[in-house]
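User: I'm writing a tutorial on reading structure tokens. Could you give me a worked example: one chain, its sequence, then its tokens, then a sentence or two explaining what the tokens reveal?
Assistant: Sure. Here is the example chain.
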Amino acid sequence: MPTILIAGAGHGGLSAAKRLAEAGCDVHIYEKCSRSTIGHDWADYIPINALAENGFTPIPHEKLAPCYPMCFVSPMKAITAGPPDRKRLVPHGVHAGRRDIAASMIADCEAAGVHFHFGCAILQPLAEGKRIKGFSYTDESGQTAEVRGDMVIDAAGAFSPIRMQLPKECRVPKKYGKYQVMYAWRGVFNRLPGEPESMIDIYLYHRNRRGISWVMTEPAYMDVLLSAMDRPITEEEIEEALTDLRESNPRIGKTRLQGGYQAPLPLRRPLARFVCDGYCAVGDSACFCGPLDGCGIRAAIRQGQILAEVLLQAAGDYSVEKLWQYQLRSLEELDTARRCREDRMRQMLMRLKPAQVELLFQSGLIGHRRLRKPRDGIKLLTDYPKLLALLPRFAAMLLKTRVLKLCLQHFPKHYPHRPNLWQSIYEKS
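And here are its predicted structure tokens:
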């Protein structure tokens, strides 16, 4: 019976853990938080069947909130672009509390025989050459300990101390590039009387800050997000932004019910490589979150299932050659081509000035779902002379998107033992 060690109780790790434990593996999850504080204390979008279709107990209906279409607000707040019916429900989608999702998945994992070790902060991997044999951690009493097993699954998040300290020979990317990390502050406030014109407003370059802000109107509360690229938001910026948003959204009360802190989110395409001997990254650790919105719960849960299937087929041989099928299937089945397109679109938008983004709104280029269709931009740009200066940027974006598509089409079907051109081009495009 192989021993599987999972660093962090991320959605992908929990998904794999249950499946592996049901198959008879000895699965241990080491998580730095306590049982009651796993996950952020706010809600996020999740398809209503994401848990059930992967073998987990669904969240009770009374704990779910409806999901509505997004509207985009220009930097000067002069234009709001969105669908005609801004209050229709999004089919098959809901907002569920992250802690509710984690609690449901943990309960199912425990029922399957998974062992949890809470209050254990991961320190670094334990390696023998290129093979990962375990990791060290600090327990609740502050004592440092080591644990070893047959396989290590990294579900410790975007800045996992395991991935960040893997041996260079593993060739797993560690660093993030410019505009690839969003620091998001989230707060849930009481809702004051009044009805909004739209239920979800997303502000681009809010107060000239690279990043997004949003205001979600829920039946019982107001959900506010503030963000900045590549740096934390200061307390002064938070207060100024909240004051500004309350002027446009007078339903935002001043009593904070949840949240009130910020966390880094990876906004980029998936890593070019996230496996090595005895090691696999899953979910945020492998950067399988939305390059535009950072949402990755469903992808992480599905990726955990793929990982469990590959590990069970490997029958104890956790060499990188066997684990390569997990890398291959993740890139093929989790719509990596779309993620690459969105990544290039976001990179281009983050390099524009607020006035240029305002022009994109005026031209109609930014609208409902338009952000996901970069090819639509070329014709619109030629119709608006003021935007012709952006044509080279759009052309470069489309070219790099094409290069990434070709990279995915030529992804090695078997593990390349030597450094290959594919990984270099994919990471740099």
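What the tokens reveal: The chain has three domains: 3-59+97-174+269-334, 178-266, 338-409. The mean pLDDT is 90.
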